[in-house]
Amino acid sequence: MGSADIIPGVSGGTIALITGIYERLVNALKSINISFIFYFLYGFIKRPYFKKSKQKFKEIDLVFLLVLGGGVLVAFLLLANVMSILLDDYPSYTYAFFLGLILSSAVVVYVSNKKFIHSKDFIFVLIGFMFGFFIVGLESIQADHSIVIILLSGVITFCAMILPGISGAFILLILGQYEFMLGVLRNLSNLDFSQFEFAISYGVGGIIGLVLFSRVLSFLFKRYHGATLMFIVGLMIGALRQPIGFISNESGDFVITVISIVLGIIVVGLIYYLSMIFIEKDSNV
Question: How many domains does the chain have?
């Protein structure tokens, strides 16, 4: 997910979907309830509230969130330099690879969730397509790099990160903060903490966005499962506008471009295949 989230045009939520952890991720984020902190503090006045604080804390899917969050953070730090090189030196082939990823991911999401989908839900593919097509067509906004702007960027982009089809990194690009935050990550990966306050601000904004938006997604999956899935498929197809537009405007070798697309498809197919193996093993335990 972290590898996908750092790439403009690819959604970490897509990776969560095809690996079968998406709904658990949404529910785990929804389980975060900071009321345990207030109950704990009130426990110094009335001791029974310590027990209530412990109960609320245990409701959080903490192990899952820590392991997943750790993986995302490691990917951010390791890939900041790699992504800069790929996007600077091989932009056409990199976006072709993204195209393969997104296209095959949309197919996988549909195929693996057909049992939840009814004919009336297909109208949401069109709605999702139009929304995704519009979002990725937006021009970059020129904004400063203040702590407050970075905090708000974190809120918005982390919401996009868990919504398959809409790339959090691309939203960051639209907000005019992508290159700046990529530089912050590069500095951190090189143990330069001179801009550490921006990383903290972005992370805090991201946590706020994730906790709030996960409640909306949880409600949608519970009440409108098939329609939500079809909207997500439409989002992903609409989001193809960005890599297709970039590839068509760049001069690159046609054969290498096609190979890059095929590699993207193979990667998603391999991830899906491995996820099915793990799911099957879990069901047999």
Answer: 1
How far, in Å, CA of 22 to CA of 272, rounded? Answer: 13
Task: Please state the pTM of the whole predicted model.
Answer: 0.65
Report residue 119 as tokens.
């004919």
Report the alpha-carbon distance of residue 273 to residue 19 in Å, rounded. 9
Select the more confidently predicted residue: 114 or 32: 32
List C-alpha distances in Å: 79 to 68, 72, 121, 182: 16, 10, 37, 10
Is 133 in a helix, a strand, or coil?
Answer: helix
Distance of CA 258 to the CA centre of its chain: 26
Question: 255 lies in which domain range?
Answer: 2-284
**Which among 255, 152, 275, 254 is positioned nearest to 209, based on CA atoms?**
152
What is d(CA 283, CA 250) in angstroms, rounded to the nearest whole number? 47
Closest CA to 73 of 174, 161, 156, 167: 161
Mean pLDDT of 99-114: 78
In the 3-class helix/strand/coil scheme, how is 23-78 assigned residue by residue? HHHHHHHHCCCCHHHHHHHHCCCCCHHHHHHHHHHHCCCHHHHHHHHHHHHHHHHH
